[in-house]
């Protein structure tokens, strides 16, 4: 098999092309990390949700905030809504799948909290319902999606839309975005600590 015909090489090439475009998103991830440092540092919380691989990315983000990204620091309040399997299955059974995240947002979301929704399609009905519930609760609603335009972009306060041709590449760049947000978050905390020491 030639290099040109190898699907693994093609996957790497697609990722390389997409990340070159994605570099333009640095300002968004910087802003999100700094905003999260303000919200979580002030006692607020992050709620995160996604389906399938996007659920894993959402949980990765919350784990980095409750645990740590690089250096040791205090834990911060961050909840991956899909991870509460008893709630998600009960809500799906009693209210329908479209309410799985929205009902949890109504329970946990407070004015000033941040709700991050991850979706490769930007069209998942349960995430669109969650965005509506988040805005109604006074949360800032951010979306990490695949290519624009999409309904979740329209239903969020701010979105980072990844221009990539495959779901796999979108998910890979969502992980890059998660790490960039965490990097900016930690840097903002360090800067705040430095100012407090002055």
From TrEMBL:
Domain SIS: 36-195
Alphabetized InterPro entries for the sequence: GmhA/DiaA (IPR035461), SIS_dom (IPR001347), SIS_dom_sf (IPR046348), SIS_GmhA/DiaA_subfam (IPR050099)
Highest taxon of source: Bacteria
Name of the protein this chain belongs to: SIS domain-containing protein
Lineage: Bacteria, Bacillati, Actinomycetota, Actinomycetes, Kitasatosporales
């Amino acid at each position: 098999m030639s290099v040109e015909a190898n699907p693994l090489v093609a996957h790497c090439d697609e990722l390389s092309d997409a990340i070159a475009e994605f570099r333009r998103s640095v300002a968004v991830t910087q802003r999100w990390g700094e905003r999260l440092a303000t919200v979580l540092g002030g006692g607020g919380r992050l709620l995160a949700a996604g389906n399938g691989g996007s659920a894993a990315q959402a949980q990765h983000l919350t784990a980095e905030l409750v645990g740590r990204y690089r250096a040791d620091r205090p834990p911060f309040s961050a909840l991956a809504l899909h991870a509460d399997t008893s709630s998600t299955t009960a809500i799906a059974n009693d209210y329908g799948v479209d309410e799985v995240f929205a009902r949890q947002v109504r329970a946990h979301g407070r004015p000033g909290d941040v709700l991050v929704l991850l979706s490769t399609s930007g069209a998942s009905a349960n995430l669109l319902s969650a965005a509506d519930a988040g805005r109604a609760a006074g949360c800032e609603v951010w979306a990490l999606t695949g290519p624009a335009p999409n309904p979740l972009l329209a239903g969020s306060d701010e979105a980072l839309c990844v221009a990539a041709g495959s779901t796999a590449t979108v998910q890979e760049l969502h992980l890059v975005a998660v790490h960039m947000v965490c990097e900016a978050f930690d840097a903002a905390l360090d800067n705040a600590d430095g100012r407090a020491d002055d």
